[in-house]
Amino acid sequence: MNRLHDFIRQRAASGNISLADAGEAATAFHRSLMEVEEQALLLDIMPLRYLRNGLRCREQLRLLQARVAVIGCGGLGGSVAALLARLGIGRLRLVDPDRFEEHNLNRQQFATVDSLGRPKTETARTAIRSINPAIEVEAIVRPFAEADIEAIDIVVDGLDDGGKRLELAAYCNKLARPLVHGAVREWHGQAGIATARNRLLASLYPNVGQGSDSKPPMNVVAPTVTLIAAIQAAETCKLILGIDSPLARSWMLCNLLDNVFEHIPA
Amino acid sequence: MQVTVKLFAFFRDGRFKEEGGEYPAGTVVGDIVDGLGIGRDEVGVVMINSLQHSLQSPIADGDIVAIFPVIGGG
């Protein structure tokens, strides 16, 4: 480890380490890129990729050591995963049984002409590797299960069905995991942080039976997805860093037609 | 009795943002929803005077009733 530290210090004359140097260290010392960047952060050396995050090394290290499950990897989930990768969340577990279809192209980050027919989580993992190869991304192609959130710190809701959301919230409550909720429809979206204490999802979906297949697919425009996904990613980051948020006490309703953003007590 | 009804998100489409109305004694929130042509299964959060209630909750003179839709897409 000392030789690796010496190598990192030597290459980080300006207090930062480049991707190329970290990659060289990974090869020379038989470590993963993530392990090298983790060691750099422990030495108070910031990987260049994170320089403009503006965080302290110990904060960036907390992000790198965090484990986040993104349940549902379509519109919201795909965009959240990309944002979390750029922030530097070290371990992402993406869970979704679906493959990309043509009607996903209007709003889903990783839906492209080339990815049609391919599993959403595996496509996201491949794309995220090119955004940030120094994090671990696990792609699971099946419906979510309780085990998916066991070795996880925070769960992100990328689902598209009220019944499934209640099922996920029940797992999160049981295992005491915060659930960063987001949902979209047309030009409207909502976001909040569900906990066992506030039972947010039971409030938002009062007429849905658990596990039910309720409504036909909803219309959604891409800006709504991007907006709500950005809020979910920011809230996830804030939870990891211990930054207080109004969403600890309320949920948020966003109306992109009138540009109205409201907080409603949770 | 006089009640103020506030609608949110797409519930406003073709309706209103906020409107006062006269309702008979014994009205519950669900009756207001029915009168607006909104399906009860489309309703998410319901608040009376900023406190969360249900479609079965009775309303009183002077109440402000806020009705939010279920937003379920991802």
Topology:
The complex is a heterodimer of chains A (266) and B (74).
Chain A: H1 2-11, E1 16-17, H2 19-29, H3 33-42, E2 46-47, H4 57-64, E3 67-71, H5 75-87, E4 91-95, H6 120-131, E5 136-140, E6 154-157, H7 162-175, E7 179-185, E8 188-194, H8 200-204, H9 222-241, E9 250-255, E10 260-265
Parallel strand pairs in A: 1-2, 3-4, 3-6, 4-5, 6-7
Antiparallel strand pairs in A: 7-8, 8-9, 9-10
Helix pairs in contact in A: 1-2, 2-3, 3-4, 5-6, 5-9
Chain B: E1 2-7, E2 18-22, H1 29-35, E3 43-48, E4 51-53, E5 64-69
Parallel strand pairs in B: 1-5
Antiparallel strand pairs in B: 1-2, 3-4, 3-5
Kindly summarize this structure in a few lines:
The complex is a heterodimer of chains A (266) and B (74). Helices cover 39% and strands 18% of the residues of chain A.
Word description of this protein:
The complex is a heterodimer of chains A (266) and B (74). With 266 residues, chain A is of the alpha/beta class. Chain A has two domains: 2-55; 66-265, Rossmann fold, CATH 3.40.50.720. Helices cover 39% and strands 18% of the residues of chain A. In chain A, helix 5 (75-87) packs across helix 9 (222-241). Chain A is globular and about 60 Å long. With 74 residues, chain B is mostly beta strands. Chain B has one domain (2-69): Ubiquitin-like (UB roll), CATH 3.10.20.30. In chain B, 9% of the residues lie in helices and 35% in strands. The longest helix of chain B has 7 residues, at 29-35. Chain B starts with a strand and ends in a 5-residue tail after the last strand. Chain A binds chain B through residues 72, 74-77, 157-162, 165, 182-190, 203-208, 214-215, 217-220, 253, 255, 262, 264-265, and chain B through 8-10, 40-41, 43-45, 47, 50, 52, 54, 68-74.
